[in-house]
Please model this.
Amino acid sequence: MHRLLLVAAALLTLSGSSPAQMAGVPPQSQPATQAQTTSQTATQAAAQTAAPAKRQAPKPAAEAAPGGGPDKVWVNLNSSVYHCPGDRYYGKTANGRYMTEAAAKSAGAKGTGGKTCFAK
Model:
């Protein structure tokens, strides 16, 4: 009889079922084992640390600086990058000014992503 109980317990362990589950006791009323609690805690900790914080690009000012025009680019004086009309940052960076594309290039500024605004 004792040997039969040991075999039954081994089979339950291999199947992942507990004796309480086999007896029809609802899972809520079963006490958590140390292994289950440790596993759940480790899973929760991993989920919290797994998602790194996303960096967001700084948002430009809502309104473009006054001035500009169809033949002007906006030069960010901090980065020496110029932006074309219609670009997201055109007239919107904190330290910049409008000038012609030729003047911007001669001052050492480069177009966003290496592009030019006006074809020659």
Remarks:
- The beta strands are 72-76, 81-83, 96-100, 110-111.
- The first strand starts at residue 72 and ends at 76.
- Residues 34-50 form the longest helix (17 residues).
- The radius of gyration is 33 Å.
